[in-house]
DNA sequence: TGTTAAAAAGTTAACGATAACACATCCGCA
DNA sequence: TGCGGATGTGTTATCGTTAACTTTTTAACA
């Protein structure tokens, strides 16, 4: 059974104006609190507006004003605390500067990446923060957006453009430190979980791992690097518990298994830990493991997870600041690039507790 | 140093029209692929559009068309896998039906709740899915939105309105089952972590706990119910690892500590587990613990965490479906209410492994 | 060859809001 | 008395697009 038929027309400024007996412009002035309006008129307008349940039409308003006071954030894997912390920080900065934040998710492919850019820019967001992984089609599209003078800032996305600011954690140094830490503990056979050996050549964390091994004269063993092969071309996925679990199983079944493992991120590490425990091996005595990100749960694992902390909030905050600067600047600011330091967090999964 | 001064005007349909030598309407027809256009004109328009890097102005378009093909989703705690799974499901359904999805976060307060509603509705989203916790001011505002004929669906938000569909997991039954499970294992002193005793009286999971105790003639002990008191009025926060950790410490320090604990959600449970381990007590022999949600990590904890699984994706999917139905209906569909079953997942944190 | 319909455009008028300007009053002070 | 500024309000045009209508051209067939 249906209730009423037909949806009513939305209430406009003119409706209020007609009811009160003034010009629409006067109503606009009242509602935007600018220009001169007598107290009497103001009160009347406000009460009528409330009575008619008026809600301003942002489309019309923004069209006329040529700005939306809204910024867009494109996230890849939204399940990742990295993304969510980023989002929170961006939101906070946006709110503090009276900007709204719209978030779009682009999960798997370049098409989704582009769809997200498209839907945000076509809604005329004042600026865009992009935190998805690089892919050719998306990069191409981003470029065309920027060349349409939409301010853009990228976070952790490997993409250079003269008018795009770049922010990232220092994944290269982080990957290096994590591996170095394992080497310092005496490990020589060190695995990497989270990326296929011959793919993701741009993955900085993996490069850091290679660099550290090289520095210490440890030969790189292809079999020790494992991860699910990306099925789709386009945007690479993110590594999960499941991938960590599977990857660890593979590593453990090697003739000469690694004595330590560096996982691409904490989720991957947690999955790997499960596999190690299932094999009745001890962490860290039999296999040491270190993750990346320092998600809140890392310290609650048992054993607690060593990891590399990256400044998640800070990245979001800086991104928002740079974006707002771009938005509010009349001209084109010089490109800024910020690579933020990571911090090695040593816990029980690499060094057994002494007490 | 600045690069160029002044931002160029955006390219419009008329610009293309002028260049090609046709009317703007013809260009519009080409770009929207409707109406008759000769192949020759089409090609010319498309090539000029591409050359000029034309990007349509969605504000103007949507204003004229009176719809945006966009839906809004308001989330509370974005860090929670519950929220993120919801978002993914909603996005999937939206995309499949050619709708965009904008997500807004409302973290702490009624004001933020309202700001999110405001920014989405003022952008004229075609409909709104709300998954934040109920609060008076927000409810009031929601009501006014609905009465402006914006389709709304709420998920897990305790709020009744004739024209708003309601979706939720059966938290009451879930809380009951979790507690019942502990009782079945022989526990009589069962704690609850995640809500203050005298607050959150509407919290269904807590009510389920009370109901189960009552059913088995176990007296409710106020001291066994613990959680951080909400500082702000307005939107209640969510329970976290930290709260679980603190809460468990309090429970363990009681003269007669509980032998089992039901945590409001898995994060809280995980925090509680850390506190239990720190006290050198065994799980589940000394203290059994069960959570709620079944986040992916629950099975990776050690011991693995018993919990109540709620259908996260399904809630999002149904919400999207109901919303799209409302959007596409000319009239007002009858209100729908869907309470989805939860599932008890028994793991090692309540029943020790036999093998 | 004329009639009619389909195809390919163009014209007009909004969508709802506001910037920019114009026009009244009113007040104070030289 | 008059002049300038503050105050209050109205008018006009426009943001960029498209729905609805009109006009012109082409094709099709009796």
Write the layout of secondary structure elements.
Two copies of one chain form a homodimer.
Chain A: H1 13-20, H2 24-32, H3 39-51, H4 58-65, E1 70-75, H5 81-96, E2 100-105, H6 110-122, E3 127-131, H7 136-146, E4 152-155, E5 164-169, H8 171-184, E6 190-193, H9 204-215, E7 225-226, H10 241-252, E8 260-263, H11 266-278, E9 288-290, E10 307-309, H12 312-328, E11 337-340, E12 343-345
Parallel strand pairs in A: 1-2, 1-3, 3-4, 4-5, 5-11, 6-7, 6-8, 8-9
Antiparallel strand pairs in A: 10-12
Helix pairs in contact in A: 1-2, 1-3, 5-12, 6-7, 8-9, 10-11
Chain A binds a DNA duplex (30 and 30 nucleotides) through residues 10, 12-14, 22-26, 28-29, 32, 35-38, 41, 56-66.
Question: How would you explain this protein's 3D organization?
Answer:
Chain A is 41% helix and 14% strand. Chain A is an alpha/beta fold. The N and C termini of chain A lie far apart (71 Å). Residues 1-5 and 231-236 of chain A have low confidence and may be disordered. The first copy, chain A, has three domains: 13-56, 434 Repressor (Amino-terminal Domain) (Orthogonal Bundle); 68-169 and 312-340, Rossmann fold, CATH 3.40.50; 171-310, Response regulator (Rossmann fold), CATH 3.40.50.2300. The relative contact order of chain A is 0.12. In chain A, the strands form three sheets. In chain A, strands 2-1-3-4-5-11 form a six-stranded parallel sheet, with helices on both faces. The radius of gyration of chain A is 26 Å and the shape is elongated. Chain A has helices at 13-20, 24-32, 39-51, 58-65, 81-96, 110-122, 136-146, 171-184, 204-215, 241-252, 266-278, 312-328; strands at 70-75, 100-105, 127-131, 152-155, 164-169, 190-193, 225-226, 260-263, 288-290, 307-309, 337-340, 343-345. At the A-B interface, α4, α5, β2, α6 and α11 of A face α4, α5, β2, α6 and α11 of B. The first copy, chain A, binds a DNA duplex (30 and 30 nucleotides) through α2 and α4.
């Amino acid at each position: 059974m249906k209730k009423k038929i037909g949806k009513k027309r939305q209430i406009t400024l003119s409706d209020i104006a007609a009811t009160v007996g003034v010009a629409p412009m006067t109503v606009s002035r009242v509602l935007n609190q600018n220009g001169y309006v007598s107290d009497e008129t103001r009160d009347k307008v406000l009460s009528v507006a409330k009575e008619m349940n008026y809600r301003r039409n942002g489309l019309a308003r923004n069209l006329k004003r040529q700005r939306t006071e809204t910024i867009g954030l494109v996230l890849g894997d939204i399940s990742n605390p990295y993304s969510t912390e980023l989002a929170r920080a961006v939101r906070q900065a946006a709110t503090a500067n009276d900007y709204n934040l719209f978030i779009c998710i682009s999960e798997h492919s370049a098409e989704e990446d582009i769809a997200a850019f498209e839907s945000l820019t076509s809604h005329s967001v004042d600026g865009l923060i992009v935190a998805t992984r690089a892919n050719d089609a998306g990069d191409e599209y981003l470029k065309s957006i920027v060349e349409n003078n939409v301010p853009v800032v990228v976070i952790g996305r490997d993409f250079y453009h003269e008018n795009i600011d770049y922010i990232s954690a220092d994944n290269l140094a982080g990957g290096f430190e994590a591996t170095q830490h394992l080497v310092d503990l005496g490990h020589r056979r060190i695995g990497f979980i989270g990326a296929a050996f011959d793919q993701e050549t741009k993955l900085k964390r993996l490069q850091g791992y290679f660099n550290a091994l090289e520095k210490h004269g440890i030969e790189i063993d292809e079999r020790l690097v494992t991860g699910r092969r990306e099925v789709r071309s386009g945007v690479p996925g993110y590594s999960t518990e499941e991938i960590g679990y599977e990857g660890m199983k593979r590593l453990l079944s090697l003739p000469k298994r690694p004595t330590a493992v560096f996982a691409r991120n904490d989720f991957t590490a947690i999955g790997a830990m499960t596999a190690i425990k299932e094999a009745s091996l001890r962490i860290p005595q039999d296999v040491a493991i270190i993750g990346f990100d320092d998600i809140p749960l890392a310290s609650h694992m048992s054993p607690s997870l060593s990891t590399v902390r990256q400044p998640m909030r800070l990245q979001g905050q800086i991104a928002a600041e740079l974006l707002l600067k771009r938005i509010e600047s009349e001209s084109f600011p010089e490109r800024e690039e910020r690579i933020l330091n990571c911090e090695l967090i040593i816990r029980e999964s690499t060094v057994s507790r002494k007490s």
